[in-house]
Amino acid sequence: MALFLFLVLVAVVLGIVGVVVEGLFYLLIIGIVVLLAAVAFIAVRWSRRTGRRPIR
């Protein structure tokens, strides 16, 4: 979960810098890609976790 939050924080910072600083629009694009990667990462972790339940 800490990795997910770190990736979201990095994405937000890159997005803000990409919007504010003129000529660094590519940072906004990189921020969006990092955010999508973080969401995909957490989705994969949650989907794997729901499938493994101990049999009692």
Automatic annotation (TrEMBL):
Keyword Transmembrane tagged: yes
Entry keyword set: Membrane, Transmembrane, Transmembrane helix
Residues that span the membrane, as ranges: 25-46
Domain of life the protein comes from: Bacteria
Protein name as catalogued: DUF2207 domain-containing protein
Upper classification of the organism: Bacteria, Bacillati, Actinomycetota, Actinomycetes, Kitasatosporales
